[in-house]
Amino acid sequence: MSVLRPSYVLRGIGSNATSIADCAGLHIVGTADGRVTLWSKTTRRVVWETALSGSNGVSSVAILSKTSEVVTIAAFGRDGTVFVVKVTLADAGYQGHIKGHSLGTCSLANASFSPLLPETPSLSLVPGPEPEHVTVLRVQTDTQGEVGMMAQGVMQIDESLDKHGMVTATLCQQPIAWVGYENGSVCAWDTTNDEPTLQLDMPVLSEAVCALAFSADHIFIGGACDKLVSLITETVDGTVTAAKAAEASLPKRGINAIAVRPDAKVVAIGCWDHTIRLFKSKKLKALAVLTCHHDAIHAVLYDDHARLVAAGKDGRISVWDV
Length: 322
Prior knowledge:
Blueprint: E1 2-4, E2 8-10, E3 17-23, E4 26-31, E5 35-40, E6 46-51, E7 58-66, E8 70-77, E9 81-90, E10 93-102, E11 112-113, E12 122-127, E13 134-141, E14 147-155, E15 167-173, E16 176-181, E17 185-190, E18 197-203, E19 209-215, E20 218-223, E21 227-236, E22 239-249, E23 255-260, E24 266-271, E25 275-280, E26 286-291, E27 297-302, E28 308-312, E29 317-320
Parallel strand pairs: 1-26
Antiparallel strand pairs: 2-29, 3-4, 4-5, 5-6, 7-8, 8-9, 9-10, 11-12, 12-13, 13-14, 15-16, 16-17, 17-18, 19-20, 20-21, 21-22, 23-24, 24-25, 25-26, 27-28, 28-29
C-alpha cells in the first residue's frame, strides 16, 4: 500500500474544520467556531467569510444552487438552525445574506442537502425535535431567487421495533432518504408523500453509523467500529431492497466521512486516526493511505476536477490528485 502527499494544504483556518463543500473555483469550509469561509482554489487564500451568530458551530455546509453571479449555501448549525447564505460574486467582493430557520434540537447527526433544481423542490434532511427523529425539508427557490424551506414530515422509528438510538448520519438520494442510527442500523425512507414511509431497516455495523455515501446502486457505510461496508441496493415499484456487497477491516476504529470518486471506481474515507484511506469501490480492496493531518478527518469530497479534498479537526484542508 503506497503513501502519497497532498497537492497543497490550506492552513490558517483558525478552528476545527468540520465540513466542506465545493463550488467551481472555491472551497467552502464550515468551522467549529461558527464560521463559513470561502477559499479561492487559485490564490489559496480566504476571499470571504461570515460568522453565523448563535450557531454554536457549523456541522454541515452544502451548495443549494449556483450561477455565474450567485452561490447559495446551506449551513447547518449545531444549535439546530439551517442558515441560508447567499454570496454574490461581484467585482466589489462577496456579500452575504443570512436567514435562519429554527428546526428544533440538534443531535450529533449532520444535515444533508440536495442541490436545488429549477422549479422543483429538493429533499434535505436535518435532525428532528428528538434525537431519534429526522425532519424532511422541501427546499425551493421562488421567482426572485429567494430560498424557502418547509418542513414536510418527520421520520420516526415505530416504537414496536427494536430501539435504534439517536440519528447519527443522513444521506439524500431523492426521493429515498438514508438514515444511520446509534445501534449500527441503516434505514431507507420513501419521502414521496407528505408522511415518509419506512422501506428498509437493516443492521449493518456493530456500533454507530457515522458516515454514508452513494454511487449508482451502492451505498457505502462507516462508523464507530473498524469496518467499511458497501450495500448493493435496488428500488422496484417503490420498494427498496439491499444486500451486503463487500466489507473492509481497518487497523483502527472510526470513520467520520466517505466520498466516492466521480468515476465510481474509488472510495475515500476520513478516519479518526488522522488518515484518509482509499479503496476500490467494487470489492473494497485497500489502495492507499494518505497522511498529512494531525487530528481526526471530519469531511471528505471530490471536487469538480475529481481531486480529493479533506477537512480535519486540526484546521487544515488538504487537496489530493488521487
